[in-house]
Amino acid sequence: MSAIGVSANRLEILQIAKAVAEEKSIDQRIVIEAMQEAIEKAAKAKYGQEHDIRARIDAATGEQTLWRVQTVVADEEFEDEAKQLRLSEAKRIDSSLEPGSELKEELPPFDFGRVAAQTAKQVITQKVRDAERERQYNEYKDRVGEIVSGIVKRVEYGHVIVDLGRAEGIIRRNDGIPRENFQPNDRVRAYLYKVSREVKGPQIFLSRAAPDFMRKLFAQEVPEVYEGVIQIKACARDPGSRAKIGVISNDSSIDPVGACVGMRGARVQAVVGELSGEKIDIIPWSFDAATFIVNALQPAEVSKVVLDEDERRVEVVVADDQFPLAIGRRGQNVRLASQLTGWQIDLITESADSERFQKEFQERTELFMKALDADETLAQLLASEGFESVEEIAYVAPDDFITIEGFDTDVAEELQERAREYLERVAAENDAKRRELGVTDEVMALEGMTPSFAVKLGQEGVTRVEDVAGLVPDDITGYREPGPDGKPVWVEGILKKGEMRKDDANLFVMKARVAAGWIEPEAIEEMLAQQQSTEAAPELTEEERALLALGELGNSGDDDEEEEALAEELGIDLSELESEGGDDEAASRE
Question: Where are the residues of the annotated region Disordered (predicted)?
């Protein structure tokens, strides 16, 4: 910018502002405001930085005006001669002026010197750049969750810089698909997952490895997914290698798996092609966790599933020849299935499960032989009937014994009497042992305490109520933590795994703290109330919402004809909902 005067050609000023605004895709008023600020800065350099100088460029005519502004203050408050004017002096200029009024003195046009022109150029450039960055941020922050396309501009240390047209995005190394190489000028599509405001401009983060990228690709290729008829309920990826998606249809006449695969696999192949050959397993999603887990482990066949809902872990038993298939190459299949379902999956072969069962069966048999003074045949019979502990035998209803072949009332009473005597002996031994360990009677008085529990506490050095109050639930129940190889390992607590639930352990510790005088009893009531609010009925599924609308949930007096009419209006197949288990699940929530 050479020597340009404030009186420069008005039309030229407006043309420059318009051209810059169009090139940078920003508002022309921002460019004009930047020019005004540049003129003000140059004028202060000429007249003095201490002055309050303001410039104005008319956006319609291009007319430029420059003022020096002084604020009128009371004589006794006068401090700054450059920016303030005494009221007595102001009255001589204009009698209507009052404290707080501004007196404007128009300044004559002047020519920019070389230094002033350079300064003005920097001001305008910075303002325009800031406005451009703000425009980019506002434009792309609302596009988070979309697929965007652009041209590869450059590749730096594995990070791909993408020209999106009006901004630049970045695919970081860990957001890209492994072994996928891009060259400058390649066209690329990616999922926009984050836009952050930075000092140097907005950072637009793109990903080709995110599960949501696959979801969006299926929405583009499968009209039923885009329209919401088919839902992708879960997605797990090993980018560039293999992926699993769980799909469900809201229309019983549409097969969700078939719709996503397409005629001769055309739809899924379009997604596979975009993902550099990533193999995709399309799995029917189920409201039943066990069924969904079995489906997720395909192509392996599952023999048995045992769920642990407290820890969201599941033990899956497969045939010995199916074990490698269930694990997959480098554990890929079971890992993806675990990510897809949200459950930690522990695989075990049928032979290992059988060995474990035989071992547990033998241990129970030996326990029953010792506790009941019974022969091996009788102990094995009890173990095979599902009795797992002496407590069950001691306190089970006598009728449950009579149903066993060869058992009558006398045999049942005799077995239960022996079981109770055994438990009393064990309790007495444990009570004596806990006294030896120094566990006080106050600890024994805590609700939920048993002699065996007291012995285990004493063995851990927990002997007083204050010691119990100082525990946390994990100390009692055990917990999981990352092992040396990064995989979670179970750390045993004072009690064996499964002997006490986490919530019960928390309540037990809270009651000990009340007994120790650390907290008031009201704290337990507040905790229980909070647990009840947290455990309130979960959000209804699509099926349950549909059934609720049809009067199947809650108190409804609609007759069958009204329900069928409403179902037809909503486009819902009642028989399909029932087959999916909506009624059963709803009933369980009731």
Answer: 571-590
